[in-house]
């Protein structure tokens, strides 16, 4: 069996320690990224202008379910010159 010179052994040990530390860091980063994908999403606020005289999300959903038409005329109260 051939013996590896001591200085090569020391270099190998140093390299393996560095690679072990890098691997540990990579695994930690992967675990954090995978965990972030499963966190719940919070909707903080919502706003919109409903069409056709609808005044709530429930009314809009009822219109969609019924296959209704929410298109209305051009708003006249915006102060635009037409």
Question: How would you characterize the overall build of this protein?
Answer:
By secondary structure, the chain is mostly helical. The chain has two helices and no strands. It has helices at 6-36, 57-66. The longest helix is centred in the N-terminal third of the chain and has 31 residues, at 6-36. The chain is rod-shaped.
**Strand content bin:** under 5%
Overall structural class, as computed from helix and strand content, comes to: mainly alpha
Count up the helices.
2
String of helices and strands: HH
* Total beta-strand segments: 0
Mean pLDDT: 82
Please summarize what this structure is.
This protein has 82 residues and is mainly α. It has helices at 6-36, 57-66.
Write the layout of secondary structure elements.
Layout (H helix, E strand, L loop, with lengths): L5 H31 L20 H10 L16
Keywords:
mainly alpha; 82 residues
């Amino acid at each position: 069996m051939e013996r590896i010179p001591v200085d090569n052994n020391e270099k190998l040990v140093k390299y393996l320690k560095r690679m072990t530390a890098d691997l540990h860091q990579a695994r930690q980063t992967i675990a954090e990224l995978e965990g972030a994908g499963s966190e719940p999403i919070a909707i903080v606020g919502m706003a919109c202008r409903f069409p056709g005289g609808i005044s709530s999300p429930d009314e809009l959903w009822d219109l969609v379910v019924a296959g209704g038409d929410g298109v209305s005329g051009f708003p006249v109260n915006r102060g635009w010159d037409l």
